[in-house]
């Protein structure tokens, strides 16, 4: 992973960071790194995520999906939400379908769920149901609906399902009762940091992707951690994001220039929001896609409020798709180059256009969309997030603010007495229709 923070310096951007400030900040990065290393070594809650490349056993995952070899799997359906879906979606999205298409059920939208189950060839579809807590309503409800759909078609879902969950809870009970292949979520690792584990890697294993390669990429990220932001790409990204937020960049746009990294921007949004959105702080993550959103969002980024950091992400290598020669007036300049050339020109031009407008931006690159590079990218962003959390002084690894809504929803469905549910009924109304 390569990180270029040049366009975030105060000589280019406002808000921007001076080199002197970066030098001073680097002293705090050294202290934070020591703290992080201690947490990793002791496998402390949260920090243990940064030991996953070492602790995740690819053979355990490969063995768990072996029974699916007897079935002609054309599709992999992940049933999970948040960190229990986005890691898998990102890995499979970035590496492509492999031997089976990727589908994610990470919402309880009846139209979409019904349509997806209608469209999927259930007999040739493997299901990975994932929940760290084993109690998440959306995941459990979706799984009950999926199971019913299989039974309605007379297809044995138990032969096609792999579960990943915690030691107890309804999902573990169901796995035990039905004797399903069940994997454990990694100890001490919050969902959003668990892509390089049983949580994020089962679909990739079913699709025949290089799970060991993903972990090797993560390990390369692990070995790149050092006591200085000037030596460690992940810490450069984390430190500059922290410094830019301090200076007013309250929004962090993640703009991959690759359709296959679209889920990566979603994964980033959960990682950044749920980890750093604490104590009245935290950059608001914004998902964008290059070059598409140049034609929808760029006007705002360049000429709107200067409250954004834009991080451009790209694989350096593209498959060659030539643009045919043409003598159509005004188009000949395109002929003879490739779509990848055009995408790279758009990337560099948009980056320069933000710098010219004085808007801070960061460049993150990986060599190509292969297992090692994707593993390193995921690890790098997780380490960047952990470092930013250390510098902000927030509790990076929990997400207490999400529980209020869960209790309210459960109360509304008769799942218990929750005062939050009462508050829903007391909603202030000013209905206009
Ligand atoms: O894996 P689980 O326990 O089903 O949780 C799913 C997601 O829900 C959250 O707890 C937020 O509600 C996330 O932190 C987590 O990734």
TrEMBL record:
InterPro entries: G6P_Isomerase, Phosphoglucose_isomerase_CS, SIS_dom_sf, SIS_PGI_1, SIS_PGI_2. It holds the Pfam family PGI. GO terms for cellular component: cytosol. The active site is at residues 274, 295, 406. SUPFAM superfamilies: SIS domain. CDD domains: SIS_PGI_1 (cd05015), SIS_PGI_2 (cd05016). Belongs to the GPI family. This is Probable glucose-6-phosphate isomerase. It comes from Halomarina oriensis. The lineage of its organism: Archaea, Methanobacteriati, Methanobacteriota, Stenosarchaea group, Halobacteria. The gene is pgi.
